[in-house]
């Protein structure tokens, strides 16, 4: 019986398919930037549910929005118009400058939608040869079939074939390779504005220019996967607009639902005009509770001074990481932007993560040798200092 377990990890290993390598921690509650375990130990959470908890844990605006909507109804399906969807879509479109939204439930599902919409767009225009999707080596777009085909990590596809075809991966920031890959048969170039899982690698200005030029030259679409970068993570509402990418379709998830499962596809009107009822859909998409929570998140992110403070905390964190890299020779370059930052380590990244965790700081990895930091977007100056001091201690213990 599960009730007899006192250790969550042991319980899960008996009860759940073993698809995750979970840490041995028994969290029971969270508030702001901290999580607390069953023994009362507090952890500064610089993982934020892998970039989900943009406002930290149990933010009162999100709690209030969910509680108020739960008093009304929690689900009515997409057979009927849904006021929380309307309010949320209006806010998202105003914030992003896009024209239409489609709601779903996760990042991978948003990317499935984005890919389907891009293909349908050209199909309806009679350009049926335009099916090819060009993405990037080491990218991550999700675990369902098309998103997995788009993902530039062959190991994740192993044993799951056959995969959907017409996906090609080119090396990140290699403009020559991209120019070779894109042609008249290209439907879309799909990219994360900042390659998060692939090592927290920023995009070069040359790459942005090349993508914009290829979009014009070959009449293809650009899909920005902003599942991790969107909703303020880089200090602007969308990362793609920060970098000057001309984008037709954006996928969002993670932070956009305030901790509830929610994915969004934002699109320009030329894409939306090619879609018809029945082309795509999902039962839970635009769930009223998730939309109410999402509206609360976006209202906070767009509130006065919020995004400026993301950039200020980012500078403090980057400077602190650079100092640590001077102090510890096994640390290398600091990567990233906004509050999606990474630092290279020659020591096994798992050791460093474990040492930080022992000392009360949760951090994550990206790729083989990058320690990734994803604090809540409303993290305080003091919490940034605290994280850096714990990381300093963690580094001294592994060196
Ligand atoms: C850039 C990016 N795209 C897509 C996904 C997949 O999102 P989900 O896990 O919600 O399906 C992730 C998840 O980490 C991601 O970082």
Protein architecture, described:
This protein is α/β, with parallel strands linked by helices. The chain is 39% helix and 18% strand. It has helices at 8-15, 48-51, 60-72, 83-96, 107-124, 145-150, 175-181, 205-217, 239-243, 269-272, 288-301, 306-327, 349-358, 381-398, and strands at residues 27-31, 34-37, 42-45, 100-104, 132-136, 167-170, 186-191, 194-195, 201-202, 221-225, 249-252, 263-267, 331-337, 340-345, 361-362, 364-366, 370-373. Bound molecules: pyridoxal-5'-phosphate. Pyridoxal-5'-phosphate is lined by residues 50, 106-108, 111, 140-142, 192, 196-197, 225, 227-228, 253.
Give the tags:
single chain, 399 residues, alpha/beta, Aspartate Aminotransferase, domain 1, Aspartate Aminotransferase, domain 2, 2 domains, seven-stranded mixed beta sheet, four-stranded mixed beta sheet, 17 strands, globular, binds pyridoxal-5'-phosphate
Topology record:
Layout: H1 8-15, E1 27-31, E2 34-37, E3 42-45, H2 48-51, H3 60-72, H4 83-96, E4 100-104, H5 107-124, E5 132-136, H6 145-150, E6 167-170, H7 175-181, E7 186-191, E8 194-195, E9 201-202, H8 205-217, E10 221-225, H9 239-243, E11 249-252, E12 263-267, H10 269-272, H11 288-301, H12 306-327, E13 331-337, E14 340-345, H13 349-358, E15 361-362, E16 364-366, E17 370-373, H14 381-398
Parallel strand pairs: 3-15, 5-6, 5-7, 7-10, 10-11
Antiparallel strand pairs: 1-2, 2-3, 4-12, 8-9, 11-12, 13-14, 14-17, 16-17
The structure holds pyridoxal-5'-phosphate.
